[in-house]
Amino acid sequence: MIAVVDYGAGNIHSVARALTRVGARFSVTNDPSAVAVAEAVVLPGVGAAADTMQGLRNARVDDPVVAAIERGVPYLGICMGLQVLFDRSEEDDETPCLGVLRGNVIRFPEGLEVPHMGWNQVRQVKDSPLFQGVPQDSNFYFVHSYYAQPSDAARVSGTTDYGLEFTSVVRRDNLFATQFHPEKSGLVGLRLYANFIRLAGQTPAPEFA
Amino acid sequence: MLTRRVIPCLDVKNGRNVRGVRFSADIDAGDPVELAARYDREGADELVFYDITASAEGRDIMVDLVERVASQVFIPLSVGGGVRTIDDMYLMLRSGAEKVSINSAAHRNPDLIRACADRFGSQCVVLSIDALRDPESDPPRWAIYLNGGRVRTELDAVETAQRGQELGAGEIVLNSIDADGTREGYDVGFLRAVTDNVSIPVVASGGAGSLEHLRDAVTVGHAHAVLAASIFHFEVYSVREAKEFMAAAGIPMRLDPYR
């Protein structure tokens, strides 16, 4: 079973609807023990870093999420579910994050319109099973004011140009995370969810197979 | 590169889509769920639903409608009409909307913008402005109208847009009452007056009748997105045609194969 971690993130229903659409079997849960034994984990997120970390701690799912990643089960982080993987975020006066990946999350510089909101292209800089069937430079829907800077360039699997080139997809083994919202990115976004559930050992609905 | 957006707008009255001419709406233009699915297939970048009944019953119908659309259409949805409180906004977000626009209530009580932005984030707070140009004014000035264009105020639209940004609005929908429903083009002068003075995205609304109008809102009015209703509802143009036309004019557009 795929665990969609419910810690109060605003986009959890949208993520659940997209997973339903591609034929996933999943449970939306805030039970730490369910996360601990999940076959795959999806961490949605939207909003501020401090709220997200607080939500994860309050639900006591922060450690189980990290443990699941370290166990090597497929993980999909979305938006804040990408940012909190890093050591710390500049947001809210320096927020310590989960520290699964080395690097920090910083704000877009002055002069760029913030939030970066709308459809932008993702350049696939590495082959990834998450991108299977997704054309190069496809548009995805973004809403964010901060972005991750991984210390290890090997973790970068997709980039996006917003006046500066930033990391929009990261990967480490079975850990995948996107800065954009695939659940709001039309067909290419659904395809990405279908690819993820396949990694989790499930068979997507026929039209996404 | 961030693309510009084409946003079909569905005016919803008692669960049906209707077409408005200068803010009076009567003509039935179809089932909103079916229309939403069609626009998605054609490549709409976002969908806006306005509840033009703006009553308690209307809100319940809207919540149900957004839930139905959100289970079929996986692009950003925006909802407006009759939103007066944080709870109204929460209800819409929970039903599947990404953004909620506030209009009359925000002009009467600007603190509502800040309260909603603090609670849900600026990205989901859209400030909607309906304005009419003061015919005597020089330089031109646009006065804000409330309650769907029925109540005139002394509020200046450009100043209100700036103030909305300061209070935490993440986007502005700028609707020209002069141009609304005329199909004679957006008021690009009005657009430019606002886009020159705020740094958040501005969505052009009211008056689209041709593909040139959509283009001009971006190239002349500097709008980030164009909202249109009747030219899409009655299949004068498809969303796809509109986007291809704008792309041919050099505007960055999302033109992925959608199906």
What is the CATH first-level class name of chain A?
Alpha Beta
In quaternary terms, these chains amount to heterodimer
Name the beta content range of chain B. Answer: 25-35%
DSSP summary, beta strand count of chain B: 12
Description:
The complex is a heterodimer of chains A (209) and B (259). By secondary structure, chain A is α/β, with parallel strands linked by helices. Chain A has one domain: 3-Layer(aba) Sandwich (Rossmann fold), CATH 3.40.50. An eight-stranded mixed β-sheet of chain A has the order 2-1-3-4-14-13-12-9, sandwiched between helices. In chain A, strand 13 and strand 14 form a beta hairpin. The longest helix of chain A is centred in the last third of the chain and has 14 residues. The two termini of chain A are 19 Å apart. Chain B is of the alpha/beta class and 259 residues long. Chain B has a single domain, classed as Alpha-Beta Barrel (TIM Barrel), CATH 3.20.20. Helices cover 36% and strands 26% of the residues of chain B. Chain B has ten helices and twelve strands. Chain B has an eight-stranded parallel beta barrel with strand order 1-4-5-6-7-10-11-12, surrounded by eight helices. In chain B, helix 2 packs parallel to helix 3 and helix 8 crosses helix 10. The mean pLDDT of chain B is 90. Chains A and B meet through helix 1, strand 8, strand 10 and helix 6 of A and loops of B.
List keywords for this structure.
heterodimer, A: alpha/beta, Rossmann fold, eight-stranded mixed beta sheet, 6 helices, 26% helix, B: 259 residues, alpha/beta, TIM Barrel, eight-stranded parallel β-barrel, 36% helix
Topology:
The complex is a heterodimer of chains A (209) and B (259).
Chain A: E1 2-5, H1 12-21, E2 26-29, H2 32-37, E3 40-43, H3 49-58, H4 62-71, E4 75-78, H5 80-83, E5 88-89, E6 95-96, E7 103-107, E8 116-121, E9 123-124, E10 139-144, E11 146-150, E12 156-161, E13 165-172, E14 175-178, H6 186-199
Parallel strand pairs in A: 1-2, 1-3, 3-4, 4-14, 5-7
Antiparallel strand pairs in A: 5-6, 7-11, 8-10, 9-12, 12-13, 13-14
Chain B: E1 5-13, E2 16-21, E3 24-28, H1 32-42, E4 47-51, H2 56-70, E5 77-80, H3 86-95, E6 99-102, H4 104-108, H5 111-120, E7 125-133, E8 142-146, E9 151-156, H6 157-167, E10 171-176, H7 188-195, E11 202-205, H8 211-219, E12 225-228, H9 230-233, H10 239-248
Parallel strand pairs in B: 1-4, 1-12, 4-5, 5-6, 6-7, 7-10, 10-11, 11-12
Antiparallel strand pairs in B: 1-2, 2-3, 7-8, 8-9
Helix pairs in contact in B: 2-3, 8-10
